[in-house]
Amino acid sequence: MMKLSSTALLLLLASSTNAFVPLSQQRSVAIPKPLSATPVLEEEGTDILLKLKRSIKNALWPGSQPDPSASEPLPPGSLGCPFFGSDGFLSGNKKDGPGCFFPQQSAREGHANIVKFYFMGAPVASVSGAKLVNQLTRAEFSQTEALSPTYNDGNAEKEVPSVFGNDNLLFERNKDKHAFLRRLVGAGMTAKSVALAFPIIKELTHNRIHTRMTNDVSAENPLKLETVCAEYTLDVTQKQILGLDLPPEEVATFRSKMVTWLDAMYSPVANLNIPWIVKHTPEYAARHYIQDKVEGKIDDLLENGPDASLISQMLFAVDEENSQKLTRKQVLENSMLLMVTASETTAGTLTMMMFLLGLHPDKYQKVVEEQKAVMAKFGTEITQDILENHCPYLNAVKQETMRMGALTGGYPKRATETIKVDGIQIPKGWSVFCNVRLTHMLDPVTRLPDNSHMCVHRGFQPERWFEEETTPTDFMPFGSGPRYCIGAPLANLEIQLFLATMARRVESFDLLEDYTGQKPVVWNPSTLTPRPIDGVAVQRFETV
Predict the structure, then answer these.
(1) Quick one: how far is CA 18 from the chain centroid?
(2) Which of 35-39, 266-270, 364-368, 448-452 is modeled with the greatest confidence?
(3) 412-415 long-range contacts, CB within 8 A, separation 24+
(4) How far apart are the C-alpha atoms of 75 and 123, rounded to whole Å?
(5) What is the mean pLDDT of the chain?
(6) CB 537 within 8 Å of CB 222
(7) Which three-class secondary structure state does DSSP give residue 426?
(8) Where are the beta strands (DSSP E) in 405-479?
């Protein structure tokens, strides 16, 4: 007679009683009713069986049970492997790109806006759709809190090593402190501040594009636009955000350390809450190299006074509401947070934009022709007014790129009390993950049954932004609510300047990879924004 281990027996019992199916979708188990059984005994037996199923499920996926005080069901979705759950959300695959776990989970549940999964001992609710995401962002500080393994509520004695820190806009949990940070960190992102930064960023854009986009490029000597975009955004980070004037021989080292530090976003080891492990990661060492540069800049500003950099504006800003200033640590950590948003995410968006325009040369030609018309009317000087009000097709390309190449989502939050949204409960203690890219994918205006609206070959349609009936309604590339990306004005300006300058310098270009016949793209599975695994290589430029 075959014997089952206790684990196998539990798994067999769980599967036989639909323990892997959300309670809201479970069907009653057909139990043969003895002839002598009474309805009361049957109900008692069923009740006992339900309790047993719930106990087994909670033993295999701790914390995944519903709040018994709420009548709403849990989100649909699979919890994956017992105890460990699903690891697929950490990265994507080469066929579908980063974050593909979420649309796949949603599709299995009939394209649901809220689905659940489980990861390393914690249940998670993935939420998409602008209406639902906005509802959750309104619950920030009252029903949810930022999820940071190293958050210490300002207690320096509890400080632990961290690759990204937590005394910043992304992780601050106190509502009043967060509002204070937004006011003072945002001082460098006002319309006036961006206008003051415009000449510097314009010069950096011109220098980068005119240096790198040349007719010397060939199939034997291709140019990777991903590298150009990364260099450009790091130029802005170094010069405008930090105000650093590094010697030429150190610029390459700075860029290398930035790349290593940003790799921590894809490294579970670097984000562990285990000090002796974190301290020995290359990402932690890279952070401290960059941190030393920022600390040196702060010392220089305190000694010699303010300059035009963003870090200077944060350091010397005084809050009008309470006359307080940011602490040195807050200046440091928020500067480094802005370095992430201004370099990695913006570089990814620019790379995706150039890839889409390389796949669709007819769209690029429309950008070129628009810039020729602008120069004929206003002259060769690029101004903010021209970019904002006289380049509709350029801005439609920017919007369409951010629609198709949005971030997978924001940093997870934790429900501090049971949340009821769209007829679903998210129990207290669950993590909540608001998914931007899935929100764009499920947009009711643009969504097509075959998902071709997200296909780089068939879905790239900047023209959709010119008509009200085709303009997406669920569009939130910079997030929403109190965690809305404070660097959005700078990112928009970088993208606009890059594309306008590119269109004035380069008449046309050819990708190295041949995508005729809608050849499938091989994606990098572990990036914040989608991009081809080998970057965007160009074999020909036709320059002006």
Answers:
(1) 35
(2) 364-368
(3) 412/124, 412/147, 413/136, 413/140, 413/144, 413/145, 413/146, 413/147, 414/144, 414/145, 414/146, 414/147, 415/125, 415/143, 415/144
(4) 11
(5) 85
(6) yes
(7) strand
(8) 413-415, 419-421, 424-426, 431-434
> Which residues, 6+ apart, have CB-to-CB distance to 10 below 8 Å?
56, 59, 60
| Domain residue ranges of the chain, discontinuous segments joined by + | 167-243+307-407+442-543
d(CA 137, CA 336): 24
**Which residues, 6 or more positions from 457, have their beta carbon under 8 angstroms from its beta carbon?**
359, 515, 518
pLDDT tens digits for range 302-344: 999 999 889 999 999 999 988 999 999 999 989 988 887 778 8
Q: What percent of the chain has pLDDT over 90?
A: 55
Which three-class secondary structure state does DSSP give residue 359?
helix
Is there a contact between 87 and 423 (Cβ–Cβ < 8 Å)?
A: no
* Contact predicate 180/167, CB 8 Å: no
Consecutive H or E run containing 182: helix 175-185
DSSP summary character for residue 242: S
218-246 CB burial, b ≥16 within 10 A, e <16: eeeebbbbbbbbbbbbbbbbbbbbbbbee
Identify which of 364, 351, 300 has the alpha carbon closest to the alpha carbon of residue 510: 364
Residue 14 neighbours by CB distance under 10 Å: 19
Beta bridge partners of residue 125, listed in sequence order: 116, 432
Tell me which residue has tokens 């913006």.
346
Token reading at 538: 């160009």
Q: CA 300, CA 276: separation in Å to the nearest integer?
A: 32
537-543/413-415 β-pairing: unpaired
CA dist 168 and 235 (Å) reads 23
Phi, psi of 97 (to 5 degrees): 85, -175
Beta strands in 25-131 (DSSP E): 114-119, 122-127
Ranked by mean pLDDT, the top range of 36-40, 192-196, 215-219, 428-432 is: 428-432
Give pTM, 2 decimals.
0.86
Q: Which amino acid does the sequence have at 281?
A: T
Write out the two tokens for 457: 């070959």
Superfamily of domain 167-243+307-407+442-543: Cytochrome P450 (1.10.630.10)
Distance CA 406, CA 477 (A): 6
Residue/partner pairs of 320-325 with CB below 8 Å, 24 or more apart: 320/183, 321/180, 321/183, 322/180, 324/180, 325/184
Amino acid identity for residue 188 in this structure:
G
User: In 371-407, which positions are buried (b, 16+ CB within 10 angstroms) versus exposed (e)?
Assistant: beebeeeeeeebeeebbeebbebbbbbbbbbbbbbbb
What is the DSSP code string of 135-152?
HHHHTBTTTEEE--TT--
DSSP symbols for 195-229: HHHHHHHHHHHHHHHHHH--TT--SSS-EEHHHHH
Residues 444 and 474: beta-carbon distance below 8 Å: yes
